[in-house]
Amino acid sequence: MGFFDPVAGFAVTLRQIFKRKVTTQYPEEKRTKPQRFHGRHVLNRYPDGMEKCIGCELCAGVCPARCIYVRGKDNPADEPVSPGERFGFVYEINMLRCIFCAMCVEACPTEAITMTHLFEMSVGDRQDAIYTKTELVMDPDGSVPHPQPESILIDLAELRQGDGWMRATAPAGRAAYEGVGGWTATAGVGMREPEPPQSPASGPQSLEESEEV
Ligand code: SF4
Ligand code: SF4
Question: How many whole angstroms separate alpha carbon 34 and alpha carbon 28?
Fold first, then answer.
């Protein structure tokens, strides 16, 4: 049976008191998130207000958690919702099942779906965790409704942060194309900032040149 030495015990406590703390006083104090942090999704618009989602269902097909439900519909000829033939008529993500892997973002051909830095998504009713177009599609001013916005946990500015990982993984995200047409704005939010150590001064190169890099 071990002998309890109170002096040794308190020595451990004293040593820990003066060590640098690794915890923060969350939620009052939040750590800076990496640019590629995977928070809740948004559905983006083009600067002219059109929805980027074309209802192709690729995101739903690739989702390993099977938590996306999309139904496409033909665009009305007189009042199209998105460029092209179809738009996302129904779009739902069950956030209780999502594993935040970002496969949906990677699969999307139009960069319609992206992930933000906001991860506080607690709800009192399971039904509220199913985000519909109401919670997902950005308003033309670049904001998007978020459940429980009055909570002290919620920093709505985090809805405007994210997307950094796309430059590294999407073909159009090569450093050579940074700041160029392919990386247009998330509607209402402006151009995405370059991700260090990339530089906006790198400018476009020809496809052949960028292949050599
Ligand atoms: S982040 Fe992953 S699990 Fe979540 S909706 Fe996208 S593909 Fe599905
Ligand atoms: S979010 Fe992207 S991948 Fe999903 S249906 Fe819309 S356009 Fe297709």
Answer: 19
What are 160-199's pLDDT values in tens digits?
777 765 655 554 555 665 555 444 445 444 555 555 555 5
For residues 159 and 42, give the distance between their C-alpha atoms in angstroms, rounded to a whole number. Answer: 8
Give distance in angstroms: CA of 77 to centre of ligand 1.
32
Report the CATH number that the domain containing residue 110 is assigned in CATH. 3.30.70.3270
Q: How far apart are CA 205 and CA 91, in angstroms?
A: 36
DSSP 8-state symbol, 199: -
41-43 vs 68-74, strand pairing mode: unpaired
pLDDT per residue as tens digits for the range 98-148? 999 999 988 988 888 989 889 999 888 999 999 999 999 988 777 888 887
Ligand number, closest to the Cα atom of 95: 1
How is the chain split among helix, strand and coil, in percent rounded to 5? 25, 15, 60
Instruction: For residue 69, tell me if it sits in a domain.
Output: yes
What's this model's pTM, rounded to 2 decimal places? 0.77
26, part of any domain: no
Residue 43, domain member (yes or no)? yes
Closest approach atom of ligand 2 to CA 57: 5
